[in-house]
Design a protein that fits this description.
Elements: H1 5-15, H2 22-39, E1 52-54, E2 57-59, H3 61-67, H4 87-99, H5 105-112, H6 118-122, H7 134-145
Antiparallel strand pairs: 1-2
Helix pairs in contact: 1-2, 1-4, 2-4, 2-5, 2-7
Length: 146
């Protein structure tokens, strides 16, 4: 069952010792979402909110607005009232964070801005509110693992 974006964000931030910026958090969660969709053949989403195609890549708007006050600084624990992630969602987040250790924010942008990916397929410069359909994210997963 998909989890609230703040529950997922809390897990990422905790694993990264509260050193992740909003941009990094968005990219890591997108890649974890992509992984869970792919592994479940589209049956399981990581988060309950849809990603949107923004100028700087895939974004969960609710999370963006919760964390934007931190600017380019690490997001602090603004998720204390939310439970900890458990189950498969937590495992996928843990694996994703581990697989991206040592990657810079620029690396994460490059990964999520892949020309054959779902963000690129749905992105229109300056447009707001453009949802990246989970079907497109699943297709991106399949292209990445081939």
């Amino acid at each position: 069952m998909a989890i609230h974006p703040f529950v997922a964000a809390k897990k990422v931030c905790s694993l990264k010792n509260w050193s992740a910026t909003n941009l990094e958090l968005q990219k890591i969660l997108y890649l974890a979402h992509l992984t869970l969709l792919g592994r479940s053949n589209g049956a399981r989403a990581l988060v309950t909110e849809n990603f949107q195609a923004w100028d700087y890549g895939p974004v969960l708007p609710l999370l963006y607005h919760r964390a934007k006050a931190f600017g380019n600084s690490p997001v602090q624990n603004v998720f204390t009232i939310f439970p900890n992630a458990i189950g498969e969602e937590a495992t996928v987040i843990e694996e994703t964070v581990a697989s991206l250790t040592g990657r810079t924010a620029g690396d994460l942008v490059a990964i999520t801005h892949w020309a054959d990916g779902a963000w690129a397929k749905n992105y229109t410069p300056g447009a707001m509110g453009v949802v990246i359909p989970n079907g497109d994210i699943l297709e991106e997963y399949r292209r990445r693992v081939q």
